[in-house]
Design brief:
The protein is α+β, with helices and mostly antiparallel strands. Helix content is 61%, strand content 14%. It comes from Siminovitchia acidinfaciens.
Length: 349
Amino acid sequence: MTAVQRDRRFYILLSLLFLVLGSNTLLYRSPLTPIVLPTDANWVVVGSLIDFAIVAPLLILYLKRGKKITVKSFITWMVAGLVFARFLIPSAYFESFTYVPIAAIGIEALLVLAELALVALLAWRLPGIIRWIKSQGESPLFSLTPAVEKSVGNHMLLQVLASEFLMFYYAFASWKKQPPSGGAYFSLHKNSSLIAFYVMLIHAIVIETAAVHWMIHEMSVVFSVITLLLNIYTVIFFIGDIQSIRLNPLFVQREKIFVSLGLGKRIIIPMEAIKDIKWGKEAEEEKINQKETITFIAKDFETLPPHCIIEFKKPLTANFFMGFKKTYTKAAIRLDEPDRFRSLIDKEQ
């Protein structure tokens, strides 16, 4: 029933968006335009500007994000709408409003400058953040993002930059580190072919880049350079992901379970937030709902079941690459040493 209501709302909003855009297009770009529009059409143009600057952006944002509308995203779509209005409305009618798109672009430019200032602030405070992480002896994978949020802010751009920093750190600056083992640490990947799968992908990308780059280069230099840069970025990400998986096994510390599977996803589970844990066959037989359950199961050539499924008392937030976040009510985990992990959890609870 909920899905039907969501679909109905989506199509209603989409129809309203087409109605707003279509009616304005017919008003200014049809054979009836000279007949319908009066000589003094300023009030009509004002109505169209409201459509493009407020109504259409809100409809687009509700179609894309539902209730999660930010000021920046609204202003961006508002500027796009006003620029579109400038090209849609004939110059004869738009002459009194030429300053409107320019003012909107100026506001967008101020937002960009504000974001650049945030980047500069992050660069200035980054050495201090790194020193703090080292002094705490914590994994950068779990501590960098909260440290950036506390020191600079939780702007999406900052989260993206933090994710990129983690990727380059693990890809280039973590090779002297040894993965922790034993005690409260539990690896998730050693009994799978995940690392081998990543190595195969890296080899395939390198071979594809070497073989195809020059052929594409002859057809389009720009496209070949873009493809080369994307391939290099992908290889760096895979290398960083491999190192992140190796150096960040699941660990239990300060009555919390820290679990991650590479750069892609991670979550912190407080012991007090655990409602129930299913082990062994009971966990294997449970049907996993991807919307409710976050899975930490290393990829293999066949689909493997979890060793345990942890149910939370209330939804917990998981962090993903590029700063994305999502709440879950369960976590499905497959470990290399499930019996030892169960023994530790039983002692902690």
